[in-house]
Specification:
single chain, 24% helix, binds flavin-adenine dinucleotide
């Protein structure tokens, strides 16, 4: 077996690992290869930093665990192997009137990856995280144990595995409760708003009546324009005439020599995007694909940031300190001239996740991509970290490739309890980094 390079979505970090493909869920885990110190499952590599990497270890590639096991079309309960993509589930279930209970902004993630990061989506204020809709899962441990975990069975392992960053063992399959829909279309509204106060007012006015809410924010806006953006809200459309929809995807053709994103393109794009619709409020019926997965239309868009790649910074700040902290974060980002077109602001709700290390908390989340500009960018991250930490917030491991251990440990106070459920033969580059005493 040879060591091979494995990369994550941000393309900043790669790691040399032994690659082992898991193909049969009835097999036990293989023995650790000689040159590897430990295992880490790998789904579809849609995590941005090093939480799906295990430098010097072995990657247990789970994509080939891709079989559907059972679909109860009356009650919407789906059992499938953990390497099945959310995209594959949608292809199966949408024509039968079912939909994912929670989905992240890309459908190219595996069920195992969605559980291990306990992903959230535009309906977090209503339905919480992905893990809340898992009825059960099977966990394979390196000592040969096969634990069926559910909210009322092996409960502690269930809680540790949801949001457990792949460290508690390999999820071989899971049972998922889907939600009923009457149409694959979504009734949406987009509202242009002027500042952060307007954002919070729109959340208050929308969270009750709209299943999905999210906002694009102009991260280059300062002064009176600070926090301005486009607020999007939507509900699954009622049954009706089914229009045809042709899924469209293109591929970003190459890795440009330098990032295509700089202070000038950023400001120009953001201003144009902010005014992209003439009326302040517009209504549309959209197919679920462009509504939930606008970025999936351009495959490999991560190449746009050039050979040095990019980082994402996603934090969540508790309600009490949310507005002040987001003001400070946006001010620091706008003043730095760095930041991205893809800046997302979302109010998270109080539906509790069963997961011990789940990211969302009741409050407000901000997510932004940053082209990798080396030391200058890391100085900005340190400033942002201070704001997040003083506001009692935390960063999302799925999107992280650099947070100091102290920030992880202060944000995730269950980390010590969680660590007792880690499989002794499992580790990750992320986990080793955040356990360092910094
Ligand atoms: C464009 C884009 C938009 C996104 N939007 C969102 C969003 O809105 N909300 C959100 O929460 N996240 C979002 N994400 C992040 C993404 O949803 C998560 O990182 C997801 O977990 C990636 O799944 P994956 O299958 O690619 O897993 P990987 O990235 O390969 O791995 C993720 C974790 O899962 C573990 N894992 C994988 N398979 C298994 C298994 N079988 N058993 C045990 N552990 C396993 C890995 O060890 C790792 O810790 C987005 C990512 C992208 C690229």
């Amino acid at each position: 077996m040879t060591q091979q390079a494995l990369s994550s979505w941000g393309r900043v970090l790669t790691s040399e690992q032994s690659l082992i493909s898991l193909t049969d869920r009835s097999n036990n885990l293989p023995n650790l290869p000689e040159m590897a110190e430990n295992f880490l499952p790998y789904g579809n590599g849609r995590s941005y930093g090093d939480s799906c990497l295990n430098s010097g270890g072995a990657a247990l590639l789970c994509r080939s665990l891709n079989r559907f096991i059972n679909f109860d079309t009356v009650n919407g309960v789906l059992s499938c192997e953990a390497g099945v993509l959310l995209a594959e589930i949608l292809t199966l279930v949408v024509p039968q009137g079912w939909f994912l209970p929670v989905t992240p902004g890309t459908r190219f993630v595996t069920v195992g990856g969605a559980i291990a990061n306990d992903v959230h989506g535009k309906n977090h204020h209503r339905t919480g995280t992905f893990g809340r809709h898992i009825l059960g899962l099977e966990l394979l441990r390196s000592d040969g144990q096969r634990l069926f975990c559910a909210p009322d069975q092996n409960q502690a392992y269930f809680a540790a595995t949801i949001g457990g960053l792949g460290l508690t063992g390999v999820i071989s399959y899971a049972q998922l409760q889907l939600q009923r829909i009457r149409s694959p279309w979504v009734s949406t509204e987009t509202i242009r708003y002027d500042n952060l106060d307007d954002f919070f007012e729109l959340c208050d006015a929308s969270d009750q009546d709209y299943e999905y809410t999210v906002s694009w924010v102009d991260c280059a806006g300062t002064g009176k324009r600070l926090g301005r953006g486009l607020f999007m809200r939507g509900n699954h459309a009622p049954a009706g005439e089914l229009k045809n929809y042709q899924s469209k995807t293109r591929t970003f053709p190459l890795v440009p020599p330098i990032s295509m994103i700089n202070a000038l393109t950023l400001k120009a794009f953001n201003t144009a995007y902010y005014y992209k619709q003439i009326p302040r409020q517009s209504r549309q019926i959209q197919h679920y694909e462009p509504f939930f997965y606008p970025l999936d239309g351009l495959l490999e868009w991560n190449r746009m940031y050039g050979p040095r790649g990019f980082y994402q910074y996603q934090c969540v700040i508790p309600t009490a300190t949310g507005k002040a902290a987001i003001t400070d974060l946006l001010t620091a980002i706008a003043n730095s001239g760095m930041g991205s077109f893809l800046a997302v602001l979302k109010l998270c709700g109080d539906v509790k996740s069963p997961g011990m290390l789940s990211f969302p908390l009741p409050g407000v989340s901000l997510a932004l991509d940053f082209p990798n500009r080396g030391a200058k960018l890391h100085q900005l991250f340190e400033r942002l970290d201070t704001i997040v930490s003083q506001a009692g917030g935390r960063l999302y491991p799925a999107k992280d490739g650099r947070m100091p251990g102290s920030l992880f440990r202060s944000g995730y106070q269950n980390w010590q309890a969680f660590s007792t459920y880690i499989d002794p033969q499992f580790s990750s580059s992320f986990w080793r980094r955040v356990m360092e005493d910094k």
